[in-house]
Amino acid sequence: MTSWLAPVPASLRLLFFPVVALAGLILLRVSAPPPEDFDLGRVFFWILVTLVAAALPVRLPGGVHATITTAPLLAAMFDPGISNPFGVCWVAFIGTFEPRDLRGEPKWYGTLFNKADFVVSAFAGWAVLAFMNGVVRTNDPFSVMAQIVAAGATFAVVNNGLSILANSLKTGNPLSRVWALSVSNIAIGLVSQVPLGWLMS
Asked: What is the pLDDT, as a whole number, of residue 2?
């Protein structure tokens, strides 16, 4: 227990505190006041689906820990029935808990950073989606595809970028090395999960 409660390492503080603070501000902003028309059952459904996906982690080369939560999170992002960004941000925060979090792996600050990373990434992806809603013609399949790719890519770049940066700071490995070892796996995951997320919605 003492080890789990260890303080945030100095090497991570300049990344940890701003990301966690930003995620907290996002959750506060989308929740106060709460949306009047959100469907709690629908939000709970996406949380449950994401929890199942989070229970199936993947270890990438370079020490990066990855999950297949991108697809259900993107599905929640594209779901108009959960009052986004409120819905997707809370799905990102609650639904991404993994079995290793319950075992105390990683330490508390690692778990908190991972949840904050997902919240920031989900909000960034939703912001791009919302912006493009005003310029995309819904009857044009190419425009819709561009919107899907843009929102999914934004989520993936923010999510994986923060994860890779944190891993580099934690392990002392050069950022370029961690990126080089992980980028192909990330790209494959992005190509497969973004369309799946849209189909799931």
From this structure: 57
